């Protein structure tokens, strides 16, 4: 069973926020949802949660239309915080967990465990507005998962976290996945998707650009990068004559170049030797998700580079 999004469309006035978008997330997956600001990520998330309804198409979770799924099954961490700033942390989280169906005892037990894990037990009686941005983000995360949902959707969950707290949150994601939870998250830090996710989708202008296994996407899309150092020929001008090779950097310690798809890197080594080169370094590196993003979407659409669209007071991101 899985989350299935089939050919959904959504417009705000004359603006087409989502156009024929389809995606599938396997149950128990840790799934990356990528796209620039304004690509339609937040709008899609809200439709999965049935906070918005698509104009056409359908969304199902475990074979059931999301409109009919119990709200307790879902957890949502929005990009913009939805906490009560003047309410104490513990009281607020227990209140929200009880709204989602937990008993007072179960909510308090879950809260104690998570406050300890996140090392913020001392803040349980603090008002949210008294916390740092990073600790507010931790509390927002707890509000999304304290009621033990089966599907958790998070919009920029690492926002405002320092490297230590980012590591703590990543570990929480992985533990939840081991427990069988399905986690979908968007992020502007593409290396986090490479590190955490087996599967992903990239959307642009409300449409699916590519989806599937992260490793397979990296294998099929984007150009490999090669780095070469010749002790006796630091600039290697002959590289510019090789068909398809695009030299991106000439540094003192190496030359970096992009290789065409299916290019045999041994040709670089053979040509270097033919020119009498003394090779002290040669390596081929698979493309990063950032490289693939640039190739498929373009540099102007890199995450955080494009302004979000707004409609009805909401961000279409």
Keywords:
four-stranded antiparallel β-sheet, six-stranded mixed β-sheet, elongated, 317 residues, alpha/beta, 16 strands, 29% helix
Mean pLDDT: 89
Distance between the termini: 27 Å
Beta-strand portion reads 25-35%
Tell how many strands the DSSP assignment holds.
16
Question: Major β-sheet, in short?
Answer: 6 strands, mixed
Radius of gyration: 23 Å
What structural category do the secondary elements indicate? Answer: alpha/beta
Regions with little confidence, pLDDT below 50 for 5+ residues: 304-317
Helical region count?
9
- Sketch the topology as an H/E string, one letter per element: EEEHEEEHHHEHEHEEHEEEHEHEE
- What is the 3D shape? elongated
**Adjacency order of strands in the biggest sheet:** 6-7-8-3-9-10
Helix content range of the residues, please? 25-40%
């Amino acid at each position: 069973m899985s989350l299935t999004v089939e050919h959904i469309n959504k417009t705000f006035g004359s603006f087409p926020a989502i156009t024929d978008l389809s995606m599938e997330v396997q149950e128990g997956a840790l799934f990356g949802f990528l796209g620039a600001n304004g690509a339609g990520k937040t709008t899609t998330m809200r439709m999965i949660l049935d906070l918005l309804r698509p104009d056409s198409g359908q969304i199902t979770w475990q074979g059931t239309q999301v409109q009919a799924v119990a709200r307790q099954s879902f957890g949502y961490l929005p990009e913009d915080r939805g906490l009560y700033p003047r309410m104490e942390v513990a009281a607020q989280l227990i209140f929200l967990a009880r709204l989602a169906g937990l008993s007072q005892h179960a909510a308090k037990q879950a809260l104690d465990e998570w406050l300890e894990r996140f090392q913020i037990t001392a803040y349980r009686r603090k008002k949210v507005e008294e916390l740092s941005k990073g600790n507010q983000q931790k509390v927002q995360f707890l509000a999304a998962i304290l009621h033990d949902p089966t599907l958790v959707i998070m919009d920029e969950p690492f926002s405002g976290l320092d490297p230590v707290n980012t590591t703590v949150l990543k570990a929480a994601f992985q533990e939840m996945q081991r427990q069988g939870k399905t986690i979908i998250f968007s992020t502007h830090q593409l290396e986090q998707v490479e590190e955490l996710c087996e599967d992903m989708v990239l959307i642009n202008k409300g449409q699916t650009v590519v989806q599937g296994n992260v490793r397979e996407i990296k294998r099929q899309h984007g150009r490999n990068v090669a780095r070469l150092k010749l002790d006796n020929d630091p600039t290697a001008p002959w590289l510019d004559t090789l068909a398809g090779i695009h030299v991106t950097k000439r540094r003192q310690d190496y030359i970096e170049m992009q290789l065409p798809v299916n290019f045999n890197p041994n040709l670089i080594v053979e040509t270097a030797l033919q020119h009498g080169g003394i090779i002290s370094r040669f390596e081929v590196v698979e493309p990063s998700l950032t490289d693939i993003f640039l190739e498929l979407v373009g540099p102007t659409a890199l995450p955080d580079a494009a302004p979000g669209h707004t409609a009805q007071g909401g961000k279409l991101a």
